[in-house]
Amino acid sequence: MPGLSTALALLTVFAVAALLRDRLGAAAALGVALAGTFLIVSAVGLILLDLGRLQPWPLRLALLAAFSAFVLLAGVARRRLPRATPTPVLHARPLALGLGVLLVTGVGLRLAPSPYLQGGQDQGIYVNVGHHIARTGRLRPVDRLLRGAVRGVPQADVLAAYRVKPLAADSPLVGVREGRWAAGLHIEDARAGRLVPAFFPLMPVWFAIAELDGGFARSTWPLVLFWALSALALFALARRLAQDSDDPLVRRRAGTLGLVALAGLALHPLDLWISSFTVTENLARACLLAAAWLALEAGAAERDGRPGARLLALLGGLCFAAGAFTRGSLVAHAIVLAGALLLGRGDAPRTRRALLGALVVGTTLAVVQAVLHSWPYFFSAAANHFHVPRLTPRPAVAVAWTLAAGLALLLVELGLRRLPARLCGLARRSLRLAAGLALALAAVGFVRQGLVTTGADQQVLAVLVRHGGPLPLLLGLVGLGLAVRRADARLLPWLVLAAAIVLEAALKSGVRYEFYYARYFIADLVPALTIAAACLSGHIITRLERRRGPRLAALACGALLLAWLVPPLRLLPREVYWTRDLADDPEQLTSLFGHVPEDALLLFDDRAPGRWRGLLAVPALLSFGRNALAVPPGGHIVEGALKAGTPVLLLSGGWEPDDRQRWPSADSGPWRTRVIARGIYQAPRAETVEGGVPARLHDGGGPWELQQLDRSIWRSSGAFSLYPDSMFVTATATGFNIEPLPLPAGARVELWLPTGLSCDVTAKLDTDPLPLTPLPRQPDGPLLWSLPPTPPQTAALTIAATCDGAFAWRWLSVRAEP
């Protein structure tokens, strides 16, 4: 029943928002409904994933129970909470109309999220792992080749092909990371064939839920939801910051400033690309913005004496923690925010404590799950991105460290509750100083980037100016600086986090290929600068109105908006923004891998389009459950599979003229193959450039050809072995004959029969015909014939047999005498 989970989620949002609207206010009630529903779906998905039961009916029943409990709790809260005093909203109808238009525009621009399914990059791994979860209900794939469960392929040979080395018994890598399978996948337990994805699992869980609800083609549609949540949170956050201003004119324009911020995000070309692509930054950004909005809304509710303040703070902390379940950098952000919350003690102590407690507990659980599920990624990412020493503790030790760190933070919070007022003021000043210093260093970093001549086009500053224009960047940086200077204690922790995000981006040396790597540096930076720019523009227009009058202020506002929003529009028509880099069609891969039997051994060659092995081995294994060998196969692996009767298929980029082909192998001679399927694979790619906007697309796909290796084994000397069911063999009632094949000089014919079969067998060449001379046979050995001293270069063999029963044979060899 596709769509059932989606319908339940929407009904829950509407029901909870309606129940709490007259208790918390419309904005807070909607925030509680959206955040609660989002957290419920995330928690249910992760719990079912841990149980290995993320499948259609367990998911639907669990969501139904959780949503029902959420609505019931909202009903109980409605009875217990007092009715809130309605707060009039200035220009409510135009505000709602503008919000609706911008949301529809932003979502409409992003309605076709990338269906990227190739596995050689992070974004393909996310989709494929999500599809694997939807198929199996569990996170960890099991590679039957590694486990030794494919006929004729010894486990030792596969382990050697993947370069899996024996580990010492006391190594912390045993059962954790025993080798690497392909990009994004690690061998967790080689003997059991168990793999583990090298990233945090929440976003693939959302993809799996979407697929279980709406089918494979809809698996990436949560990207649209993530952007819609980000957009709503950004609008509400900018509006809340303006409502907390000391200037009454700014407060009156709070809704307008929220719309300006939302327009800046919706029309930003880089945001358009990032938000439509299958990368974790989309989900992490939604969590970050939602957490900031709910936390500031909670603080305002406590100061105003409105109900629900602690609930909003708890949901804000949990939303931030959900981001930590998504991406490793959010763990670093959580550490920064937790430290700032410990020191920044404002006039809303209850909500601050609730926010800190939820943040610490949730992030601790996120790190624990990352250690248990993504141990290799967690510590390697910490070393690569945050330049800390690469640690390799045992998982139990890492979990103990994590729990101890979380508990220590909570104990520090208890110890600081009675901090003297003088020390509280000193702590706040230190936070302000730290944020100001971070922004100053970021400014120096951006100036240095602007002065760089080598690779200047690929610096973060150049990318931001190229795609969004200089004005919002300047307004954002100046706005953050002024906010740090003037902000009170309730806003300081979030400004410290924003300053850390800006500093991290400014210190990076470059983004290389911006349409892939830019997301690492600016996915969080663009929303932060957009909000700061919107708030600063509101203060500028307000001050201008006081000094020069409303007419000139209105003209200045129009000019400012045109200078901000129009320049990025010149980039939006470029087709690259509508396809996203490396987009492809899941239906194409479905039709391709549909020709591969489930018990087959799938190999890849390196013909164009390039990197077939790395790009397509991952979806073959994860999304389609095929036995894919992701490394170049040794001849003995292929030979063993063919001898055992396992179908061996080769996926090749490019076509050959014939339907019967040769696939060369360095260590065992060419293999004979038969083409069983052909097609054209379309994969539009953005032109990859270092600096500059990709101006065109090129097709990264091309012709593909699926070949089945024949049950014949060829040596470089020209010798070969044929097996029953080979396409070169034609069976008759009393024997068989083979097609004309090369006969190497000095070779002999060997026919292996099943043990105990008694037959009178003769062999001849069809070229005269020429009977072959039998040779002595060893007990239980093959029947032997000698070829003429100068055999023809190509000839067909005919085998005739008279047996007591049915004639059967194991294989026929033509090879040099030992």
Overall average residue pLDDT: 86
What fraction of residues sit in β-strands? 5-15%
Structural class: alpha+beta
Low-confidence stretches: none
Number of spatially distinct domains: 3
What's the Cα radius of gyration?
33 Å
Which strands sit side by side, in order, in the main sheet? 5-4-6-11-8-7
User: Which overall shape is indicated by the principal axes computed on the Cα atoms?
Assistant: elongated
Characterization of the model:
This protein has 818 residues and is an alpha+beta fold. The chain contains 28 helices and 24 strands. The strands form 6 sheets. The protein has a 6-stranded mixed β-sheet. A hairpin with a 2-residue loop joins strand 1 (179-182) and strand 2. Helix 5 (122-136) packs across helix 8. The longest helix is centred in the middle third of the chain and has 38 residues, at 349-386. It is elongated. The two termini are 66 Å apart.
List keywords for this structure.
single chain, Jelly Rolls, 6-stranded antiparallel beta sheet, 28 helices, 24 strands, elongated
